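Please, structure for the following, as tokens.
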Amino acid sequence: MNVNHEIKSQLAKLLATEDLIVEHKHVETASFNVHDRVLTLPCWEKASSLVYDLLVGHEVGHALFTPDEEWWVDHEISPGIVNVVEDARIEKLMKRKYGGLAKCFYRGYNELHEDDFFKLEDEDVNEMTLPDRINLYFKLGNFIDIDFTIEEKHFVARIDQCETFQDVLEVSKDLHDFCKANDEKRKQEKVDDAEPQGIPFGSSDSSDNSPSDSQEGTDEKDGESEGGEVKTEETQTKGDTPQEPAQLQTGDSSSSLDGQSSLDVKTDRSLQESLKDLIDQDDYYRDTNYIEIPNIDLKKVIVENSDLHSRIDKEWRESHPDESVFRFPDKQFFEFKKSAQKEVNYLVKEFECKKSADAYARASTARTGILNTGVLHTYKFNEDLFKKVTVLPDGKNHGLVFILDWSGSMSRIMLDTLKQLYNLMWFCKKVQIPFEVYAFTSCYPKFGGAEPLCEAKVNQFDVDKNFSLLNMFTSKTKGKVLEKQMKTMFRIASTFGYHTYGEDRYNVPLGLNLSGTPLHETMIALHQILPSFQKDNDVQKVQCVILTDGEGHPLTYHSEHVSHYDPTKTYLGSSNSARKNCFLRCRKTGRTYSFGEGWYGSASYTDAFLKNLRDNFPNMNFIGIRLLTSGDSYSFLSTHLDGQDLINARVVWRDTKTASIKTSGYHTYFGLSSNALSNDTEFEVKEDASKADIKRAFAKTLKGKKMNKKILSEFIELVA
């Protein structure tokens, strides 16, 4: 059965009424670390949902009500008996705390009984030991009849009334002594029955002698030997170390009639062994790992805007003193800027309209107490004769953080992507929205040498020390300087798509060549960048827009490994997180996120980081913009959609060359055709064109503009 561990973890947290850290690992038994508040649960992959809920409820009961104390230090009690009594107590308290759990426990234990988890098929329940019958009574009492003597019923009633762990210890001690006395009584009866079969009359007196007493005798009788054996076992039981209370469980096993001590709880042992069968033993990746996001040193990651452009200008002054080499991209830039004004103005208009509509939707109207003289003549049939005032609340101020994919796969569409980014930047400038633009890369030179970006800790992501974020643009830059910077990056982007030829070719500055795809490293950095941006700019609503052509590569994480040369020693190494048994864990939100089969470029892997960001920053929008070539559209759509949704999306794509997906890790993931989104769409026809040709050209132009407006309107709606 495919169990959603995230849901079961949330169930455990809800039941515990605290932000427990819940870990599902390939262990045989559950455990709870009281100090760290970590509840470790086995991966019961083969358990039904009912049984899983029962087991979770039971273990949370231990986490809530079983104290962390070494009770065996001061109490000589069989741990099996204590466990039986404590199980009855914590399940009673859990059902009292959560009324709905009663049905869950009932159905779960019924299923365990039907599957013979207690190994009762060949057993006569009423012939079992008292602790076994008590254990079955409190777990399976609704499904089987169990007999107790009047004296035994006394213990059942006391267990049912246990409220504290001290009550448990007191009842367990009395039950332990009772069972032990019965064992000794039965042993003595067995010895008495055996005496006529060759044991000399009167030798039973010597059965009570200790081993030291019997040393004076020259001929050891059988009874003396058996009696000494019991004494030795008892002595061994008392001498058990506190760290191993489980040894108490079988200390008197030799004293029973059938080889099983009354202190031994066979049914509890059978249940634990059966529960092991619910764990998928064939799972190749045995260890479940919970990986956390580190705090990175942003000073080592972010290349400041002024430093970046100063270095580019310096390099180009030296390598290209004659700026005529840039005449072609510069001409293209100014032409694009002029043509883009219509779209920018449309964005501004849409934003202001939607912002005003939102404000009026939240407006409140109140009477002033001042008579409205204009309606006094209606006093006979109108009671509302007072002036009213409408209060428009202040709208939220906004800020945008743009993340630009500066990887090698963007080469074909980098210029088109930059154009879309420029549209949004000009829009922000016009409506006075603060913004920052970062481009992620892994090849920007770290002058002075690359240093680790964060402290290496076990089960934390390892962030590549070559990872950098280039602060290409910022709203803090003045208009003329910003335009110069935009022109510079336009020049660089023009080289990637082979838009420059012949003698107009020029070099890309050092570190600005396209590189790998540290998208996930960027999402880790956003945990620090976004709140800092919000605070520095004093904005209430932040939009994070990521312009990319896909997903990033899986990350490694720090892990502890055993030395091949010395098995007693360990060292801090790294492991790949792209495994189904690796989870992203966030202590702040208390949630875990599955990576799925996180192979290279896996959408599920990227979605885990995005969902974590959304949970950490619920008041922020995360928007994805992906520019697609004609051959990429189906792959993009089928990754995030299926069934009828995929069919419908493909129809929309054929008509508009756009897609708006709500099922990914982004709030909205826009898919846009890189060709259709070019702002170079003009109404062009031949001189001798027919009416039909003119009609088709005009319709094509309108369609392109309609497509642009559709996707821009949806984007602005998210922002406003």
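The chain has a mean pLDDT of 78. The longest strand covers residues 620-628.
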